[in-house]
Design goal:
By secondary structure, the protein is of the alpha+beta class. It is built from eight helices and ten strands. A ten-stranded mixed beta sheet has the order 1-2-3-4-10-9-8-5-6-7, with helices on both faces. Helix 5 runs antiparallel to helix 6. The relative contact order is 0.19.
């Protein structure tokens, strides 16, 4: 996991004791990478552009797990628009009401549409079966099954749980990356506030943080 090129170009570089430290003089950001045999396994970031890491993590995952006390409309739309065909579990104790509606609002209508389409399509197949041979109807049935499979494959799968108690942790996990620190999944938290994040691609750390998330999820 490397550093964004546009940051590296405007940094000064110091090497010491197995770690590389980058200080962005223009944006007042500080980045430290702890390098392992396969490259940087952990990055410690402090600055106002946490989105560079969190958005990369989210967009690169097929299964993403998020804990953020606050989620605003901006990032609810980001997740909804970019999460077709992916599975996402979210724990948030104080998300904006509009954000909650956006994240919870897609699936029931999608299932209703699929059910109506299925019923109408099978009625047409039944009619066709009366007038045509099985060899003619079978390809249509296979095409229908494939279309429905693609629909469910590409449908947004977003589950949100809102705990009764306030959850202060901020955690973002995908298959190969994990990040935790102070940044909420809001526009201010990702683009304006000075936040601190630890981002890791170490498989053991990613697996451990995923298990921590699932442990909290199952208790709710």
């Amino acid at each position: 996991m490397g550093f964004p090129a546009h940051i590296v170009k405007i940094t000064c570089h110091r090497q010491r004791a197995g770690a590389a430290s980058f200080i962005n003089l223009r944006a007042q950001e500080r980045i430290m990478g702890i390098f392992g045999a396969g490259g940087a396994e952990s990055v410690y970031y402090t600055g106002s552009q946490s989105h560079k890491y969190v958005e990369k993590l989210i967009l690169g995952g097929r299964n993403v797990f998020i804990i953020s006390p606050y989620i605003d409309r901006h990032y609810a739309m980001f997740l909804r628009e970019n999460f077709t065909g992916r599975r996402m579990l979210i724990i948030s104790s104080s998300m904006a009401p509009e954000a909650e509606r956006i994240l919870k609002g897609g699936r029931p209508m999608g299932l209703l549409f699929a059910a109506v389409l299925l019923a109408v399509s099978f009625n047409w197949l039944a009619v066709l079966a009366r007038f045509f041979s099985l060899a003619t109807v079978l390809p249509a049935a296979i095409l229908l099954a494939g279309s429905l499979l693609m629909f469910f494959k590409h449908e947004n799968r977003i589950e949100v749980r809102v705990p009764h108690e306030f959850v202060h942790a901020k955690l973002y996990v995908s298959e190969k990356m994990a990040a935790h620190g102070s940044a909420n999944l809001t526009y201010n938290g990702m683009h304006r506030n000075i936040e601190h994040l630890e981002i890791t691609s170490d498989p053991a750390d990613v697996a451990r943080l995923k298990e921590e998330f699932l442990g909290i999820w199952k208790r709710m």
